[in-house]
Amino acid sequence: MRTGVVTNQWRLPVPASAGVFKTLPTVREKRFSILIASIFLLGTLILYCQALVTERFNNFIIFRTSWTHLVEHLPLYDLYPTAYFDYYLYHPSFPVLFLPFALLPVQVGLLLWMLFNSGLVLYAVHQLPATPKQKNIIGALVMLEVLNAVQSSQVNPAMVALMLLTVVNFERRNVRLAALFTCLCFFIKGYGAIVGILFLFYDQKQEYLKYCLIYGLIGTLLPLMVITPTELLQTYHDWFQLISSPEIKEDGSLFATIDAFRHLPYTASTVVDKIVMGIAFAGLILALFNTARAKDSRSRWLMAAYLLIWAVIFNQATEPPTYVIAVTGAVAILVMFSHKCVTILLLTILIFVTSLCPTDLVPKFINLIAVEYHLKSLPCLFVLLYIQSSLFFQSGKVKID
């Protein structure tokens, strides 16, 4: 099959160098793109004003104060109830990366932080190997999840943007940037680096690993700007101890959904949880194997979306704002590479159940059901299973790269 041929069954991807996705958008598409960007901007500004009025920007305070704690040689991973609630859960190097926002006055830093997160997602979406129309659709459909995460002053929008940019640069054979974005993901939230697994399906593996090693060493030692080597080792010890403890268990994962349907409190791991996790790892290995067999761009993008969803729904630390990662991956792959009927069905379920039902935009009784049973993860699971089956059948097809 020739590269770029569109069959009745699949809309097959074409390398960016072929120029298929470099066609200029129409005037209508430009206007729609400007409209989406304007809504992103307006929504972010409204949420910023709301945060100032309600003084609800705890995550930003956590990020900002982490730099102060680092400079003052205080433990990063202790509780500081007088400054903020919850634990600081991020990489020991993140306070240094956050420094540009931490040095600004709170109001200014918060505004730029929220704008940075929403803007970076839009930028990443427009780097996808999609038509201008598809990019606009993706941007519109992920908007609610992005703004939900921005409202919490979370880092998750920036995380999903960096994860997408990692894959984009893999596809462009720019392994230096792919390695940089992989490492940035890790130095914010460790699990974000899961997209780095995709290096297995590209050339220049050694060069990618070389740059990961370089960036990794630099990032790992970054806190030495302000603390001693002994303090750095203790900080890493504290971080590993915290992220592996039950203290950070949240109710946003698929495990919480399963426990809710079993009318059990989501407190400790059960035998069922361990079985589900075993199945999840088996599914992940199978998906990687089928991607390796397929050796085409579409399968690699399917695998990328699989990783974005998998890292969220099987993560005990998942919160509702984390779903911007899973939903962006799901929406992108459904819009770019799936059957039209499958796209409509799964996107409808995904947007309604995952993005709308947990909000006040639906009737109260629907919202209560969605919240009580933690339904946010289910549509993402459906998309994951769809990707799993697509990779399985795709691996037996004629290669297109």
Characterization of this structure:
This protein has 401 residues and is mostly helical. The protein folds into two domains: 27-243, no CATH class; 245-401, no CATH class. The protein is 64% helix and 0% strand. It has helices at 27-54, 58-71, 94-97, 99-102, 106-125, 132-151, 156-171, 175-186, 205-220, 229-243, 254-261, 271-294, 297-313, 323-337, 340-356, 364-372, 377-394. Helix 12 packs antiparallel against helix 13 (297-313). It is found in: Cell membrane. It is a multi-pass membrane protein. Pfam families: GT87 (PF09594).
* N-to-C series of helices and strands: HHHHHHHHHHHHHHHHH
Question: Could you give the count of β-strands?
Answer: 0
Percent helix: 55-70%
Q: Quote the beta fraction.
A: under 5%
SS content category: mainly alpha
Summary?
It is found in: Cell membrane. This protein is mainly α and 401 residues long. The chain contains 17 helices and no strands.
Outline the fold blueprint.
Blueprint lengths: L26 H28 L3 H14 L22 H4 L1 H4 L3 H20 L6 H20 L4 H16 L3 H12 L18 H16 L8 H15 L10 H8 L9 H24 L2 H17 L9 H15 L2 H17 L7 H9 L4 H18 L7
Question: Which key phrases capture this entry?
Answer:
about 400 residues; mainly alpha; 2 domains; about 65% helix; globular; disordered N terminus; hexosyltransferase activity; transferase; GT87; cell membrane; membrane
